[in-house]
């Protein structure tokens, strides 16, 4: 079966945007309830003739502020269990948060390939602010703008290296 790329990260960091860009089309699942659309959780991806399945762990449970951390813990566990490669997405405009640090600690203990993805860097020139992300102890940050479609080729090169 295809390798699994699991996307994990706080609400609003841009996981769904990245997922949709890699999947290459706007996709949503309409739930049983009329009028309710939810983000899709699974999609197939391809890069340089290598095929994989993506999981957007952020779509697994609806977000509610008071349970963000327990939800994040669960999503990180799912990513660790299922992912061959884990994309840990953080917000390059907001910087590191305590939730990012906790999730990074969980991921670091897992024996999986973790790629630290700093999103929302919307300019071609990488700002010095991204250096703070080395603190998470997950290696060199991969800088992208999912919104603008910047850096996605370099990210996918890194992803498929680990299959
Ligand atoms: P998720 O909750 O992690 O799935 O995040 P979403 O993909 O829903 O994005 C949350 C918000 O961040 C939305 O308003 C997006 O338009 C915005 N966003 C996503 N990617 C980028 C980006 O690369 N740059 C900027 N400036 N905003 C982004
Ligand atoms: Mg989402």
UniProtKB/TrEMBL annotation:
What Gene Ontology terms for biological process does this UniProt record contain? ribosome biogenesis
- Lineage, top-rank taxon, reads Bacteria
Stretches assigned to the EngA-type G domain: 3-163
Q: Where does GTP 1 bind?
A: 9-16, 56-60, 119-122
Q: Where would one find the signal peptide in this protein?
A: none
According to the UniProt entry, its GO molecular function terms are: GTP binding; ribosome binding
Q: Which UniProt keywords apply?
A: GTP-binding, Nucleotide-binding, Repeat, Ribosome biogenesis
* Record note on quaternary structure: Associates with the 50S ribosomal subunit.
Q: What does this protein do?
A: GTPase that plays an essential role in the late steps of ribosome biogenesis.
Similarity comment: family membership: Belongs to the TRAFAC class TrmE-Era-EngA-EngB-Septin-like GTPase superfamily. EngA (Der) GTPase family.
The protein's name = GTPase Der
- Gene name of the encoded protein: der
**Included range, full protein:** 2 to 164 of 441
